[in-house]
Amino acid sequence: MINFVKVFKALKVARIEFTAKQLAQVLGGTVEGDPQAKVTSFAKIEHGKSGQLCFYANPKYERYVYSCKASILLVNKDFQPKEPVSPTLVKVEDAYKSLADLLKYAATQKRTDRRHRGFRSSWFLTSKFGKKVYLGSHSYVGHHARIGDYTKIYENVYVGDNTVVGRHCIIYPGVVIYPGMVIGDNVIIHANAVIGSDGFGNAPLPDGTWEKIEHIGNVIIGDNVEIGAGTTIDRSEMESTIIGNGVKIDNLCQIAHNVQIGDNTVMAAQCGIAGSTKIGKNCILAGQVGIAGHLEIADNTTFGAQAGVIGSVREPGQTLLGSPAINFKNYMRSYAVFRRQGKE
Q1: Is 168 annotated as catalytic?
Q2: CA-to-CA distance for 135 and 157, rounded, in angstroms?
Q3: Per the residue annotation, which of 138, 168, 257, 294 is the catalytic one?
Q4: HSE on the CB side for 3, CA within 13 Å?
Q5: Which helix (H) or strand (E) holds 95?
Q6: Assigned domain for 200 exists
Q7: Model confidence over 239-258: pLDDT tens digits?
C-alpha cells in the first residue's frame, strides 16, 4: 500500500515544485491540458485544491474526478472522462505505481549525501568508511567494521566489531547491530531494531535448571531489505540466520536463530518465526503469524492474520488461515460450521 502521508511529506519537505510537463517526463506519461500547471503538495482526490496533485485509479472514486479542483490529476492512460474535468491530466501506464515512483523520486531529490561525524560518535583506526558516510552523534562503530558508500547511521546506533554494512543503507536511531553481522546494500533498519542477539537456546540439566547454549554464528541480510522498528533477528548457533534480497519486515517481528527467509518475502507486524525454519521466496505473512521451528515453507505461500503454523507447507502457492493453519477453502468451510454451531 502507498502511504499518502509520506508522499505529501516528501513533496513538502523537499520543497519540490512539479509542472505537469515535468511529472510526465519523470513518470513517462502524457499531458492533457496545461503543461505548465504546477503543484507543490498532495491531496486525496475528494479533497483536491488548486496547487495540489491528486491521483485516480479506483473506479469507485470516478465521481470525484469531475468535482476535483486540484491542478493536476494522475490517471491511467486508458481513462476517458465522461464529463468535463478541471485538473490537467497526466496519463501514465499505472497511476498507482506511478505515485510510488514519484515518492521515490521526491525522496532522492531531498536526500543530501555528505560526510559527517557527529558529536561524541566513536570509531577506530581499523574502522573503514566509504564515501560520504554519515555517522550521527553518540553512535559507535567497532574495530574492523566496514561501512559502505553513502550509508547513513543516525544517532545512538551501535555497530559491533567486524560488522559489514553495505552501500546506501539507512540505520535509524537506537539500532543495535552485534559484532560480525553482514548487511547488504540499500538496507533500511528502523529505530530500535536489534540484529544479532543470541538465539533462545538452553539445554535442560538433570537438576531442572537450564544451561545457556552459546551462539557463535551471525546474521546475513541481503540487498534491498527493510526491517521495521523494534524487530529482532537472532544470530545462529554456528552458521548464519539469513534474510534474502528484497525481504520486507514490519515492526515488532521476531526471527529466531538459524531461520532462512527467501527473497522478496514480506512479513507484517508482530510475526514470530521459531528457530531453524526455512521460508521460501515471495511469501506473505500477515499480522501476528506464528511459525513453529524446524519447518519448511514453500515459495509463494500466504498466511492470513494470526495463522498458527505447526507443520511444513510443501506445495507452493497456497493460502492458509487459522490455528493450526489450513488451506483457506477448508478453513472457510469449517468457519461456516463454527457459525452454525454458535447460533444453536
Answers
A1: no
A2: 9
A3: 257
A4: 6
A5: helix 95-110
A6: yes
A7: 999 999 999 999 999 999 99
